[in-house]
């Protein structure tokens, strides 16, 4: 029971901090704001995390785990997904996570403010573009900029850039990226495996950023 209460308090602190970091950034967030949003105390915050810096790093790590799942989704070919559709699906999943997951949204902002940002979407987009065989500097620039652009436009209004907007972007880009735009779903591919979101249970995905094979 004590352990469960401690875990509950820890998660409340993380969620409260994520709300503040997502809205105000690291430097402008105070411990008082975190405590108020989490409904806890400064004593509990220091007990569980020790500092604001350690708390921010915990949120970055949790967001990093979500990125790993997104990379798995983008690299999965077990269900016939091809690179162009994987690019489309990735941008929809990113926008959806940004709108719905406060910890992911906070982690993305904290990462951008960090002295060594991970920018994990860049190698992922490059890998998928190379796989399409239609890569160009212009297309890479557009897609790389799309990710932080969605974040910037959604920062104070999560969900502002939703599925309809991302779909419209792809309706514009597909004729440039492929000679058969009608072969793809600009609205994103509904996944047929509800119990296995990646459709890759027991099977290895294609190469992920930074890997070969």
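^ structure tokens above, recovered residues below v
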């Amino acid at each position: 029971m004590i352990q469960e209460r401690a875990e509950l308090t820890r998660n409340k602190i993380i969620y409260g901090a994520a709300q503040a970091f997502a809205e105000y950034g690291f430097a402008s967030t105070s411990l008082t704001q975190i405590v108020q949003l989490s409904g806890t105390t400064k004593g509990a915050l220091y007990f569980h995390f020790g500092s604001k810096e350690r708390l921010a790093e915990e949120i970055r790590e949790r967001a990093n785990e979500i990125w790993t799942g997104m990379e798995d989704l983008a690299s999965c070919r077990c269900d016939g997904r091809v690179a162009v559709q994987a690019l489309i699906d990735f941008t929809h999943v990113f926008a959806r996570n940004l709108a719905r997951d406060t910890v992911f949204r906070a982690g993305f902002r904290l990462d951008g403010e960090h002295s060594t940002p991970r920018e994990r979407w860049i190698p992922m987009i490059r890998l998928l573009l190379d796989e399409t065989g239609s890569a160009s500097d212009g297309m890479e620039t557009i897609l790389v900029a799309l990710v932080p652009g969605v974040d910037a436009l959604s920062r104070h209004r999560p969900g502002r850039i939703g599925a309809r907007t991302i779909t419209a972007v792809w309706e514009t880009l597909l004729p440039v990226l492929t000679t058969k735009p009608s072969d793809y779903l600009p609205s994103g591919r509904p996944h047929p495996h509800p119990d296995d979101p990646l459709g890759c249970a027991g099977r290895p995905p294609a190469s992920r950023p930074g890997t070969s094979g």
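Residues 192-206 have pLDDT under 50 and may be disordered.
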